[in-house]
Design goal:
L-serine binds at residues 314, 345, 368, 478. The chain is of the alpha+beta class and 523 residues long. The protein contains 13 helices and 24 strands.
């Protein structure tokens, strides 16, 4: 039986750690009985079904004015105290309820705003009563400090005892209300940029078209056929070793992956990004704090049974966690990272010819960009990230289009998202190869990443805490510089020749030892 770690009413799929001698290497084995967490699909909507307001599971989606919420486990249908909490601005939600309601509708979220507001009012009422009883208790305590008759003192002791018992009950109710209010409010998605098209995926608009489809003059092959004929990968052996949607890269395909990664890193580093390699196991709480949450009955996250760790689906998660719970100096911003990692996704529910071969796999290499900046700079960095992506793909000679994704297709953390889809002639369609998202302060509120603006010139030379400028949440952005398998699909299919060979694009040749052409192996 897999560990049932509940995230928003569902659980992460688990991997079993085999019981083996201490001297042996550990083995990860998928198990069958799991509930699900769908965190990494491009359609990462919030799923908040109807439920008893006091028997909720974790919800980790917050409005931009809302801070984070916790992971919980459910035992015997009871909510266990959250492992981490958020500072949610419920007053902002109440004061802007019309805008929040419209945003929930536009993003196809089923967050229950009315319940959030109802719980908030109940919490305020209980909080007011708690404060009243505390004041009465303090008044009784002060009276007992003076000279009193024995009967009067006894009366005050009884009154104090009753107040203490009543206060304890109310405080317990307040804690429960606060937890339920937090969890419910976290169903609310991020705000949406005013220029984002409203509607489903079909409402997304084209920002840019680059290049033109190549006129081959011969019957094109897809990357699967090319890979087989050029002996570049082996899906059959990987299926026996690991299961479906795994693969071995071979020969020039290995060199091509290394070239793509090294070339991409070198190009992005020229733009002032700090290179990173990241942990590929992270705490499940960090996954939640980055806003990757369940939608529907499919799972995208692998977790390790018997621990609170997950395999990452993107380097965005461990990079986002680097400065968790930190207060940065304004002079440190922006922080621009480019991270290489392996990524792991269950890809549950994916099937059909559109997902064959390398297009949709369980494990792959990726280079990810991540930016932390001041709020007023995030839109300009969003434009910078998409331009870096477009420049990389143009340098490789790809025909692609950049889309401004519609509100119904935005993941919960994204304020605005641009997708890049490249033409894949063997598949006969455009396929997503990259995205760039501005999450404004959604993730930083959950991860607790703030910065302190530069201090104004003090009126006096005395430095004290009161003279410090108040902290603000940073804005975070992420963008895929190179998702290796899909780039290999694009390059093989677009650069194939009539004789079955494949040309190596110019920018990659120096990273492949000068190799210019992949040719069929002689028998």
């Amino acid at each position: 039986m897999g560990l049932q770690c509940y995230f928003g009413g569902t659980t992460i799929q688990t991997l079993k750690l085999a019981a083996i001698p201490a001297s042996s290497r550990f083995i990860l084995k998928p198990i069958s009985k799991t509930l699900v967490l769908n965190s990494f699909s491009r359609h990462n909507y919030v799923n908040c079904p109807q439920r008893n307001p006091f028997k909720l599971l974790v919800r980790a989606l917050s409005a931009t004015a809302v801070q984070t919420a916790p992971i919980t486990e459910r035992l015997d249908n009871e909510v266990v105290k959250p492992q981490w909490k958020a500072a949610i601005d419920f007053k902002w939600i109440r004061d802007n309820k019309d805008a929040v309601a419209l945003n929930i509708k536009n993003r196809n979220s089923n967050a229950n705003l009315e319940l959030v507001l109802e719980l908030y009012e109940k919490m305020l009422a209980v909080q007011k009563e708690v404060e009243r009883l505390r004041a009465e208790r303090n008044a009784v305590a002060n009276k007992m400090k003076g000279k009193l008759e024995i009967s009067e003192r006894q009366k005050l002791i009884e009154e104090g005892k009753n107040l203490k018992e009543g206060l304890a009950t109310l405080e317990e109710d307040l804690v429960k209300l606060t937890d339920e209010l937090q969890l419910e409010a976290q169903c609310i998605p991020n705000l949406t940029h005013p220029l984002v098209p409203i509607g489903g995926e079909d409402s997304s608009t084209v920002r840019k078209m680059a290049g033109t489809p190549r006129d081959f003059g011969f019957l094109v092959k897809d990357h699967l056929q090319l890979g087989k004929e050029l002996d570049l990968f082996d899906f059959d052996a990987a299926a026996e070793v690991s299961g479906s949607k795994f693969y071995y890269l071979k020969n020039e395909a290995v060199m091509l992956e290394m070239a793509l990664v090294n070339w991409t890193l070198s190009e992005v580093m020229k733009k002032g990004f700090t290179p990173l390699t990241t942990p590929e196991l992270v705490r499940s709480s960090v996954v939640e704090k980055c806003g990757f949450q369940p939608r529907g009955d499919n799972t995208q996250v692998y977790s390790i049974e018997g621990s609170d760790q997950c395999l990452i689906g993107t380097a965005e998660i461990p990079v986002g966690g680097i400065h968790m719970d930190a207060i940065l100096a304004e002079t440190q911003l922006p922080l621009k990272y480019v991270a290489f990692s392996h990524c792991f996704r269950t890809e549950a529910g994916a099937a059909g010819t559109a997902t064959r071969g390398l297009y949709r796999v369980h494990q792959f290499s990726k280079v990810e960009m991540f930016v932390l900046c001041r709020p007023e700079e995030s839109e300009s960095y969003h434009e910078e990230l998409i331009k870096i992506e477009e420049d990389l793909f143009s340098a490789l000679g790809l025909h692609y289009k950049t889309l401004d994704m519609a509100s119904g297709d935005l993941g919960a953390p994204a304020y605005r998202k641009f997708d890049v889809e490249a033409w894949m002639p063997g598949l006969g369609r455009y396929g997503e190869i990259s995205s760039a998202s501005n999450c404004i302060d959604y993730q930083s509120r959950r991860l607790g990443i703030r910065y302190r603006p530069s201090e104004p010139t003090p009126a006096s030379p005395r430095k004290d805490k009161g003279s410090l400028a108040p902290t603000q949440f940073v804005h975070t952005l992420n963008a895929t510089a190179c998702a290796v398998p899909r780039m290999i699909v694009c390059l093989l299919e677009n650069y194939q020749q009539e004789d079955g060979s494949v040309i190596i694009p110019g920018p990659l040749r120096a990273f492949m030892g000068g190799l210019e052409l992949i040719t069929p192996k002689s028998t």
